[in-house]
C-alpha cells in the first residue's frame, strides 16, 4: 500500500489521502500507522481517494471505522471517493456507506465534510 498526503485546498483542517494498493491486513496496518499520528485538532477532516484501491477486506474496513472514532474525538470526519463498484457494494453490504461518507468524486466528498 502506498499513501500520498496533500493538504486539502478548500478545507483548512483537512487532508487528502491518496491510496494505492490493496487495503487488506498489511495495507490496513500501514494505513493506521501512517494516518493515526496525523489526526488532531489541526487535522480533523480526511478525504480518502480509493481510485487505485482494488481490494478492501474486513481489516481495511475496521481500520477506517477505528480512525473515524478517533477523529470524532476531535470533532472530525472522513469521506471516501473513487471506489470501484465492487468496493461500493461491500460498503453497502456492511451498511457503512453513509457513516464513511462514500462519494462518487472528490468535490462531493469535500462537500459532505463541510
Explain this structure.
By secondary structure, the chain is an alpha/beta fold. The chain has a single domain, classed as Transcription Regulator spoIIAA. Helices cover 38% and strands 25% of the residues. The chain has 4 helices and 5 strands; from the N terminus they run ββαβαβαβα. A 5-stranded mixed sheet has the order 1-2-3-4-5, sandwiched between helices. β1 (2-7) and β2 form a beta hairpin. α1 (25-35) packs parallel to α2. The longest helix has 15 residues, at 58-72. The chain starts with a strand and ends with a helix. The model has no long low-confidence stretch (mean pLDDT 96).
Question: Quick summary of this structure?
Answer:
This protein has 114 residues and is of the alpha/beta class.
Which secondary structure elements does this structure contain, and how are they paired or packed?
Blueprint: E1 2-7, E2 14-20, H1 25-35, E3 45-52, H2 58-72, E4 77-81, H3 85-93, E5 102-103, H4 106-113
Parallel strand pairs: 2-3, 3-4, 4-5
Antiparallel strand pairs: 1-2
Amino acid at each position: 500500500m502506498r499513501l500520498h498526503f496533500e493538504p486539502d485546498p478548500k478545507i483548512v483542517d483537512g487532508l487528502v489521502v491518496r491510496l494505492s494498493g490493496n487495503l487488506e491486513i498489511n495495507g490496513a496496518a500501514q494505513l493506521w500507522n501512517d494516518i493515526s499520528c496525523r489526526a488532531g485538532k489541526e487535522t480533523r477532516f480526511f478525504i480518502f481517494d480509493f481510485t487505485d484501491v482494488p481490494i478492501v477486506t474486513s481489516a481495511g474496513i475496521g481500520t477506517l471505522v477505528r480512525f473515524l472514532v478517533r477523529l470524532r474525538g476531535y470533532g472530525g470526519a472522513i469521506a471516501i471517493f473513487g471506489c470501484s463498484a465492487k468496493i461500493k457494494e461491500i460498503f453497502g453490504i456492511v451498511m457503512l456507506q453513509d457513516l464513511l461518507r462514500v462519494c462518487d468524486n472528490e468535490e462531493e466528498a469535500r462537500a459532505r465534510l463541510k
